[in-house]
Design a protein that fits this description.
Keywords: Repeat, WD repeat
Number of strands: 31
Radius of gyration: 27 Å
CATH topology of the largest domain: Methylamine Dehydrogenase, Chain H
Protein name: WD and tetratricopeptide repeats protein 1
Strand content: 25-35%
Structural class: alpha+beta
Strand order of the largest sheet: 10-11-12-13-17
GO biological process, one term: negative regulation of fatty acid biosynthetic process
Pfam family, one: TPR_19
Largest sheet: 5 strands, antiparallel
Organism: Musca domestica
Length: about 650
């Protein structure tokens, strides 16, 4: 019979709590599970519980076993190491026959955590039985890729079939029950070939399988588009190069593309050298969202069931009082003027005292050009407010436009749309929407928006700001492309034509759906294996590494950075939350793995401070380091 135990509120040690959960009653186990959620107070008090040493190269990939008791790691030293981090112990070292940097390691489902697959820069995939007498002997080896293999993916309901993504542009579907003969014309394993639709330089960088709807598979490439395929509509073909599919073989309806609106709407059929690439993607636990870490940009979440194509200009209906008699017509201008005066308070309820204080702080930051802090404060106010306030959204839009980091103008446009949906009579929101359209290189839309503002609010026709914006629009329409459009075309201007994509690829890109949430602050330019993951049972936090040697934790509700921790001497690539506990494993350029758990309440937190300066330095690095993401051959940590 299992023991019962009283709960010690001071106990924060993860290893002890895990042990208690196993020893004592189910009720206490459930209590511990709730206690070990990703609580905000825990997120602010993480510390290195231990450092796992044993690798002799950069640690590029981490993976928890299904029960969360074993951590697997792969490295540039070609070793697969299994750890018990709770006892700070190395369980097993497997010297694989890989001769290139290891980029991915995966436990196969329903194998009692005994089968582990690896992928590496030597273009090879291997499968190991870690309980075998000779675990270094691969049970299954695949050399079908003709370029580096970057990621592996498994499905929870599939113990035998798994998938790989390689820089040859191919996604392979592998079944280790079948005898495998590499590059045989009779051995059908390839599922997707991006080069058939984009160009010969297309690369598959990462892959993930929806944990609930396992027929859906997400693929990231060396471009900013996340693709989700319905593999039920795909047919496998030989991995031999002469058997690659022709365009048109994949049904148009079998794939959906996702891309931030400020990027996807710059589409043309001409393929240019693209510095943005998706370095990692993953589904949430319920399979309803896709989290994407984009190199040379930010982190995005896409809502798979409610995502829509980007909307740039869609003004809500606005009814201006119409005169009913001749005398009313004489006073039409007076009526319109009165309506405009009323619009200053229409649909804009008085903010609660606490939210008004947040708004004041945000305004002070904005006035003093501390745009990061202004946006952070307005976002907190939006999260805490008991009702949606158009003023808060518009103030945040103003801060976005002045800060002008990658994607900020488009984020401002989205906030302007939100403010107008809440209050269609909000004149300032109309004006800033027109300005953001111009900044996004859409002068025709900006002109239409400004004309509609004047039609709805005639007394603003001679407003100085309106006149100056109208002048800017006319000048911009005479210049093609605009400076802003050139900026939005690519965050690091390194564009060289590579030819034209297929009609199918152009169609899919034009139909790309927009993001739900955006997370900014980290820097992701130097490696193309940088991860991002959900943290918490409800995914209430987002975590990712950065080129500054830190890992970041974002709060989902506000999108704000919750905390930043120093975790590597150079770059953090892997930030892997434990499946059940408030515990994280991180790795990067250093030849070790760091385990993070909450510290005692009386200890001083060790997160990076101040946050704003760290974040701004990262954004500057992304803007001033145009070759980092492409020059990956000279350094040991290159992905």
């Amino acid at each position: 019979m299992r023991k019962s135990k009283s709960y010690d509120s001071q106990s924060n040690n993860i290893a002890h709590l895990l042990n208690d959960r196993m020893l004592y009653s189910d009720d206490f186990g459930s209590h511990v599970r709730r206690r070990l959620h990703a609580l905000p107070s825990f997120m602010q008090r993480l510390e290195q519980e231990c450092v796992l040493k044993g690798h002799e190269g950069c640690v590029n990939c981490l993976e928890w076993s299904s029960d969360g008791r074993i951590l697997a790691s792969g490295s540039d030293d070609f070793q697969l190491i299994l750890w018990n981090p709770f006892k700070q112990k190395r369980l097993q070292s497997i010297h694989t026959k890989h001769y290139g940097n290891m980029f991915s390691v995966k436990f196969l489902p329903k194998s009692n955590d005994s089968l582990v697959a690896t992928a590496a820069a030597d273009k090879t995939i291997m499968l190991f039985d870690i309980n075998a007498n000779s675990p270094a002997e691969s049970l299954y080896t695949c050399h079908c890729h003709v370029a580096r293999v970057k990621r592996l993916a498994t499905a929870p309901d599939s113990p035998y079939v798994f998938w790989s993504a390689g820089e040859d542009g191919c996604v392979l579907q592998l079944d280790h029950r079948e005898k495998h003969v590499c590059r045989s014309t009779s051995n059908s394993v390839s599922l997707i070939n991006l080069t058939a639709y984009i160009d010969p330089n297309a690369e598959a960088k990462c892959i993930a399988v929806n944990p609930i709807r396992t027929e859906y598979i997400a693929v990231g490439a060396n471009d900013p588009y996340a693709r989700i395929y319905d593999r039920r509509m795909l047919k496998t073909f030989s991995s031999a190069l002469n058997d690659a599919p022709e365009t048109g073989d994949i049904p148009k309806e079998c794939v959906t593309y996702y891309c931030p609106g400020h990027i996807s709407k710059n589409n043309s059929k001409r393929i240019e050298h693209e510095s943005r690439a998706i370095t990692y993607l993953t589904f949430n636990a319920t399979g309803t969202e896709l989290l994407v870490n984009m190199g040379a940009e930010h982190i995005y979440i896409y809502d798979l069931y409610n995502a829509e194509q980007p909307v740039f200009l869609n003004l809500p209906e606005f009814k201006t009082p119409s005169p009913s008699t001749e005398s009313d017509a004489v006073d039409k201008d007076k009526v319109a003027t009165q309506r405009e005066k009323e619009s200053t308070s229409h649909n804009r309820r008085k903010l609660p005292e606490q939210i008004e204080e947040y708004k004041k702080w945000g305004n002070d930051f904005l006035e003093n050009e501390k745009y990061y802090l202004a946006i952070r404060t307005y976002s907190d106010a939006i999260r805490l407010a008991s009702f949606a306030s158009p003023v808060l959204y518009l103030n945040r839009a103003t801060a976005y436009m002045r800060r002008d980091w990658f994607g900020d103008i488009y984020a401002a446009l989205r906030d302007c749309h939100t403010a107008l949906r809440l209050d269609p009579s909000y004149v300032k929101a109309h004006f800033r929407l027109a300005r953001s359209l111009l900044e996004l290189g859409r002068p025709q839309d900006a002109d239409e928006c400004l004309k509609e503002l004047i039609r709805r609010f005639p007394s603003y026709a001679n407003n100085h700001g309106v006149l100056m914006l109208n002048k800017d629009i006319k000048e911009n329409r005479q210049t093609t492309p605009s400076h802003q459009q050139q900026q939005q075309q690519s965050p690091v201007a390194d564009i060289f034509a590579r030819g034209e994509m297929s009609d199918e690829e152009f169609y899919w890109r034009c139909k790309a759906k927009d993001y739900k949430e955006r997370f900014v602050g980290h820097c992701n330019t130097t490696t193309d294996i940088k991860e991002a993951n959900y943290f918490g049972y409800d995914g209430q936090f987002i975590v990712a590494g950065s080129d500054d040697g830190n890992f970041f934790i974002w709060e989902r509700k506000s999108g704000n950075i919750h905390s930043i921790y120093k975790a590597d001497s150079a770059i953090v690539n892997c930030v892997l939350p434990h499946p059940e506990l408030c515990l994280m494993a991180t790795s990067g350029i250093d030849h070790d793995i760091k385990i993070w758990t909450p510290m005692k309440d009386n200890e001083k937190p060790n997160f990076v401070d101040p946050l704003g300066r760290c974040v701004e330095e990262n954004q500057m690095k992304m803007k001033t380091d145009p070759f980092a993401i492409n020059n990956r051959t000279a350094f040991c940590w290159n992905g």
